[in-house]
Amino acid sequence: MIVRRMMLALALGGAMLAAACEPSDPGSTAGVAQAKLPLTITSAGGAHGFSVELAKTAAQQEKGLMFRTGIPADEGMLFAPYPPEGGPPREASFWMKNTPSSLDIIFIRADGTIARIAENTVPFSETPVASGEPVAAVLELNGGRASALGIAEGDRVRWPGGPAAE
Predict the structure, then answer these.
(1) Tens of each residue's pLDDT in the chain, 166 residues
(2) Beta pairing, strands 103-108 & 156-158
(3) Taken in order 129, 110, 38, 153, is the CA torsion positive or negative?
(4) Partners of 90 in the β-ladder
(5) Inter-residue contact 67 to 28 (CB < 8 Å)
(6) How far apart, in whole angstroms, are the C-alpha atoms of residue 152 and residue 41?
(7) Peptide bond into 81 cis (omega under 30)
(8) φ and ψ of 107, to 5 deg
(9) Which residues pair with 114 in a beta bridge?
(10) Are the C-beta atoms of 153 and 110 separated by less than 8 Å?
(11) Which phi and psi angles does 66 have, rounded to 5°?
């Protein structure tokens, strides 16, 4: 399993990690994914729309939503493709280091269905959160949002260019 954010430390070394992950303004979005795209999750309760930042490079996926607070209810971050270098889906493992906001981490299969939802992850935790099976994308939303909307494993996730795009 690969733990995003840990890979950066191994690839770039501690000094560069500190520079990349600890900006002088921790709430800054400098160096993180900026492109937003619409994403829809279809559940038993209907379709739920989100506007998500796209993290498609290794650097963007390593940083994720670190240092972010005040994430709007219908926004989040999509890690696609996962893994960022391409290739077949593989098991994902995330952690919450330097992430002050609780998140729902939604692991998405290659067919666009939800494999697993890790709800209300613990801020700043270094405990790995694993997908449990190979996935092609990962979505992070505000903690508790999936439950509030009735989003469940098996629901379908769609975004432009995604595996289940129409």
Answers:
(1) 334 433 333 333 332 333 333 333 344 444 444 679 999 999 999 999 999 999 999 999 999 999 999 999 999 999 999 999 999 999 999 999 999 999 999 999 999 999 999 999 999 999 999 999 999 999 999 999 999 999 999 999 999 999 755 4
(2) unpaired
(3) negative
(4) 135
(5) yes
(6) 10
(7) yes
(8) -95, 130
(9) 108
(10) no
(11) -55, 145
Strands 2-3 and 90-94: parallel
- What is the amino acid identity at position 120? N
51/114 Cα distance (integer angstroms) = 18
Write phi, then psi, for 43 (nearest 5 degrees).
Answer: -125, 180
Compute the C-alpha angle 24/57/141, nearest 5°. Answer: 75
Amino acid at 22: E
Q: Which residue has the tokens 């990962």?
A: 138
- The answer to whether 92 and 78 have CB atoms below 8 angstroms apart is no
Strand partners, 30: none
Write the DSSP symbol of residue 56.
Answer: -
Global pTM reads: 0.80
**CA pair distance 74, 25, nearest whole angstrom:** 24
